[in-house]
Amino acid sequence: MTSPAAFRDQGNWCNGFYELAMEVGSRDDGRVQAVLSALWSAADVRGCFGRRDREPEEQDLVPCTVGSLAEFGHLLGQVRLPTGELAVCGCVAVRGGDESSDWLDFYVPVGALERAGLAYQDGRPFFRSAVMDEWLAALGTEIFKEAPFALGVIGFEVSGCTDASTPAGELPTTRDIGYLLPQGGVLRYGAANT
User: Fold this and answer.
1) What is the pLDDT of residues 55-91, one digit of tens each?
2) What is the number of helices (H) and of strands (E) in the chain?
3) Domains, the chain, ordered by start
4) Beta-strand relationship, 86-94 and 178-183
């Protein structure tokens, strides 16, 4: 059986990404760096690498910085899933322009999740995992304590599906994705409920 933590195995990187996407705010390297540092610490990511065509022991570590994100496009590592399995993971920054926000997306590829034994939820055409949702919500809560963000969304390929202005400070009643919404300095979690 192939390890979900193997970088070179392209099967680990396929079928999309399960994400915690965080809207950091208007373009600001310092804020993105604060969220990135808090993320790597909260998730206890092993290593920080720029390439997925080499195993971690075959490449040098890169700094866990906004500069490395700009250079490599993604920062990669390995993370211990809530099931106990070690899996590949990564993050990417989606930088806004003058009128849009910066985002930082932490992801575990669905291929690695499947190899770690996290299966599709019954009857859904897309990946959803209550175990992953709860784990990512807990990570987001820890990150928020160190580096507040405007909105967090959790689920399959959630990056760009909404922004902080859409829920207007209130959790939607019907949710296809999970929401981490700051209210009065406290982060409120609304799990996906459809």
Assistant:
1) 999 999 999 999 999 999 999 999 999 999 999 999 9
2) 4, 8
3) 15-190 (3.30.530)
4) unpaired
